[in-house]
Amino acid sequence: MIRNFLKVAIRNLWRNKNFSAINITGLAIGMAAAMLILLWVQNEISYDRFYEKTNRIHIVYSRDKNNGKIDVWNRTTALLAPALKKDYPEVEDAVRFRPVYFLMTFGEKHLNVQGSFADSSFLSVLNFPFLKGNAKTALNDNHNIVITNKLAIRLFGKTEAMGKTVRIDSADNFTVAGVLKDLPGNTELEFEYLLPWTYITKLGWDNNQTWSSSNAATYVLLKKGISREAFDEKIKNIVRHHKKDGDGSTREVFTQPLSMAHLYSKSENGKLIGGRVETVKLFIAIALVILAIACINFMNLSTARSEKRAKEVGIRKVVGARKNSLIMQFIGESTILALIAFIIAICLVQISLGGFSEVVGVPLFINFGNLYWWLFALAFILFTGLIAGSYPAFYISSSRPAEVLKGTFKNASALIKPRKLLVVLQFTFAIILIICTIIVERQLQFARSRDTGYNKGNLVYIFSQGDVIKNYRLIKHDLLSTGAAVAVTKTFSPITRVWGTATGLSWQGSTEADKKLNFLLFEADDDFAKTTGAKLLQGRDIDINSYPTDSTALLFNEAAVKAMHLQDPVGKTIKNANGVNCHIIGVLKDFIIESPYDEVKPMIIQGLSTGYPVVHFRLNPANSVGIDLAKAEKIFKQYNRQYPFEYVFADEAFARKFREEQQDSTLSALFAGLTVFISCLGLFGLATYMAENRKKEIGIRKVLGASTSSITTLLSLDFIKLVLLAIIIASPIAWWTMNTWLQGYTYRIQVEWWVFVMAGFVAVAIALLTVSFQSVKAALMNPVRSLRSE
Amino acid sequence: MIKITDLEKFYRTEEVETIALNKLSIEVKKGEFVAIMGPSGCGKSTLLNILGMLDDPDGGSYMFNSVEVAHFNERKRADLRKHNIGFVFQSFNLIDELTVFENVELPLIYTGVPSSERVKRVEEVLDKMQIMHRRNHYPQQLSGGQQQRVAIARAVVNKPKLILADEPTGNLDSSNGNEVMELLTDLNEHGTTIIMVTHSEHDARYSHRIIRLLDGQTVMENIMI
Ligand SMILES: Nc1ncnc2c1ncn2[C@@H]1O[C@H](COP(=O)(O)OP(=O)(O)OP(=O)(O)O)[C@@H](O)[C@H]1O
Ligand SMILES: [Mg+2]
Fold it and tell me: What are the helix (H) ranges across A609-707?
């Protein structure tokens, strides 16, 4: 029986080659797209789940009130881990992790690499696999270092890494005591080497560590059977308990399974409620939609064909087939098709995986060695086969043989209606995606073209390391005198980032509520406006070299002046949270330093006090960028020999702020394209079928005098009506979706009506193109031939 | 073997209700060869479909081998059908995707005959119908007469007790038609009951008895000598 089914299925496929090709291609593309997306999803949800004790590892978050909101962040004081270990029997271990950038030197090799300080038992809790050495001893000695295989190769090439000595920041020597396998892509932790925590103490970096500090990531390994909720309740107020002065701190801590950290990073009201997980959900939905569209195609084309097979079904019934066996046969056939499509889909996925990985920014691959993958694949094929084959299967096999034997179904319209519905559904999805693509792209353009308020072109910055600070005067002098740069400034953070905030300011006429105002904090020594191109509206730039009092000078941006309701701000005195009186020397035009989608927040620039500033310089526009940089490199190499010359272009750093939206835009364009393509395949198949089925009708019409164009119109119009209906359904849905999406941005475009018109126009044009080929072909057919063939 | 009493069948469309069979009563005995005749649209095909359990009646009783089958569900009807009844149609109704051999084999597959036995039986009937040499051809590659012989082969391969034929010679020329009639007569002589719808007085003469229908009712029965 099965053999008989198979035979018919394969012969059927072969006899309708074009039809089968369209059917399988559509399904394969849909499957491939869904598979790619699900691979990405699988990667996202697999973050930090590979540890031996994953279920018991938690990361500690801090939470505090800020400008009336509750902020949540994933750092705590370094004092927390030892206290947890000492005072809480629930805790099996608690380890700290603090990222750091050091220059590593081996022989003549100098590398600037990110690593981290870590407690000695860190690798026993988060057991990243070792290639050499082991977790117990690797970080036990104060002079040991653990490195990844990647770094080992960069430093030592092919030679044995274990036991070699590397210099850290040209100051201290460490011995390689362990080599880790390269970190997997699916971990939130980033480091190429681990240094013992004791080194921080030796450097004196934790001298002023208090219970309000927060510069360490703390990971807690709870004992077996401990409830996290109960533990959270116990440690909630640990910061307040330890603060001797009991200054009314509102700081709290709580834990979250480490495996959830990647997915849940956004907080609301002090609770982690979303983040990456939203994108994951959205992507799952999109994968299902694309798959559904492909299945709809499949169903549609299969039903269209099944009318032709009505006779076969009738005969089978006459000679004794039961309904169930016919249903089985149809579903079996669609499962075979699904299987073929799946195999093609896997090939497509393998081909496109590289490109897709680049778009989403993570390396993805199919793990063929995984049993679950195969089970999933099997389920996937059966499910698709079942969904796709169910409609024709149940519909046809429940018809009465006496009717069926008459040739076609009496009520063929019963089949056409749902088919039209499916086309409408498909195009609804397609149009929604087209609209989304246009709007996402426009929002991106809009934010990109927003005036940043400073001149980001030709602006370069470097993080000061080694001797840069010591030799800063000389470097600045040489940069200017050689003509490599036209202006140089030292700042607290790069022009595209904010690392500090200030609160508790008071001034003449300020209220108690004003003390709660939160300002972004930036520092600069001199020539800030000149170098960055920010516009001074009033007063003058900071210049701590010419004016000794400028260590207490403040520059405000417009937003800050507005928030403080100051008239004539220049010259006013402001008392900061430490009680120091500062004076306002100038007002800058608002410029974007954080998100290009948000309003510019109140910001203060004060005289530079940090010991690790960022050096910005504006390249000399008279020379080419290459020449300027070559000159600059020479100067930095001269005064800071040990360190590589690593610079960042401000405009490139700024562009990185658009990465996510750029991804959204690329992906929505990709998905829209795919959906449209699959829908068109379906439409094409359907049009082919319709044209074939109406051959006789067309022949008769032509005999009676219809023109080619009137017949083409007749055949195409049917489909265009469906697409128009889809536009009507899609528009409000797309409008709502995009409006919701745009709400996430303060600086955003309005959804305009022409977008819908354009999307509709595109959809109709594409549909028309698809259908007209078949319509014209049918209309041009010689009526004598089509009539005879009936 | 077959006894129908007051059998009714209506077709309802949006506008009209057609009475296809109007309280029709007929009896057919085992081993009989009955021809049903009548003008177009009088309900012959409808009757045959109901007798073959392809369709269900709207009223009346249908005794098949002394069992009331009028209310059988689809599954029971399919089971009864595949063991007892063979069909021959005017338009042959062969499956285009299957070869001659596979078409004939189909009923045996559905009745669960093992594969080796199937080959034997199919070859036997193909031989009898003289189309053995065409066993691997597809229906489109055969002439009308040959196709009808395949259809008959398929109808008899399961050794049914009853054969229902709806204008089996309707699409054939007279020599092919006669051949088909000879085949049916031969089957009947070997004990198979046959009910045949026909428009041809010539073909009807092969039967034992002619039932004439008009507007879904029996108007006359001729017994052939
Ligand atoms: N599916 C149907 N829906 C509505 N009416 C039907 C249907 N099938 C048959 N009829 C009607 O029932 C009546 C009997 O039809 P039937 O096919 O049994 O006639 P027939 O005697 O076989 O005619 P012919 O000799 O032309 O084959 C006719 O009036 C026909 O119009
Ligand atoms: Mg008829």
Answer: 625-639, 650-655, 659-693, 695-703
For A214-255, the three-class secondary structure string (H helix, E strand, C coil) is CCEEEEEEECCCCCHHHHHHHHCCHHHHHCCCCCCCCCEEEE
- DSSP letters for A401-441: HHHHTTSS-TTTHHHHHHHHHHHHHHHHHHHHHHHHHHHHH
pLDDT of res. A565 = 86
Q: Does residue B20 have a pLDDT over 70?
A: yes
d(CA B176, nearest CA chain A) in Å:
23
A-B interface: how many C-beta pairs under 8 angstroms? 73
CB burial string A75-106: b at 16+ within 10 A, e below: bbbbbbbebbbeebebbbbbbbbbebebbbbb
Cross-chain CB nearest to B111 (options A11, A311, A320): A320
Angle formed at CA A319 by CA A313 and CA A324, multiple of 5 degrees: 55
- Asked whether residue A279 carries a pLDDT value surpassing 70, the answer given is yes
Other residues' Cβ atoms within 10 Å of the Cβ of residue A707 = 11
Q: Which ligand is nearest to the CA of B42?
A: 1
Complete DSSP assignment for B69-94: -TT--HHHHHHHHHHHEEEEETT---
How far is it, in rounded angstroms, from Cα A291 to Cα A32? 9
Segment 366-405 of chain A within 8 Å of chain B by CB: 400-402, 405
Q: What is the ipTM of this complex?
A: 0.77
- Which chain A residues are closer than 8 Å to B107 by Cβ? 319-320
**Separation of CA A405 and ligand 2 centre (Å):** 12
Question: What are the structure tokens assigned to B187, written together?
Answer: 């089957």
How much is the pLDDT for A177? 93
Q: How far is CA A183 from CA A93, A515, B40, in A?
A: 22, 45, 83
| Contact of A61 with A74, CB cutoff 8 Å | yes
Distance, in angstroms, between B77 CA and closest chain A CA?
9
Q: What is the pTM of this model?
A: 0.74
pLDDT tens-digit series, residues B127-154: 988 899 999 998 888 888 899 999 999 9
Give the three-class secondary structure for A256. strand
Tokens of A785: 């031939």
CA–CA distance, A177 with A167 (Å, rounded to integer)? 14
| B16 CB within 6 A, ligand 1 | no
| pLDDT interval class at A125 (50, 70, 90) | very high
Q: Which residues are paired to B196 by β-bridges?
A: B35, B165
> Which of A360-374, A474-488, B138-152 shows the lowest per-residue confidence on average (mean pLDDT)?
A360-374
Minimum CA–CA partner of B55 in chain A:
A402
Distance A188 CA to ligand 2 centre (A): 76
The B-side interface with A (CB below 8 A) comprises 49, 52, 54-55, 74-75, 78-79, 81-83, 87, 89, 93-98, 102, 105-107, 109-111, 154, 158
Q: Name the closest residue on chain A to residue B51, using Cα atoms.
A: A402
DSSP secondary structure string, A324-354?
HHHHHHHHHHHHHHHHHHHHHHHHHHHHHHH
Give the residue on A whose Cα is nearest the Cα of B88: A318
Looking at the CA of residue B43, tell me the nearest atom of ligand 1. Answer: 18
Task: Please work out whether the CB of residue B59 comes within 6 Å of at least one atom of ligand 1.
Answer: no
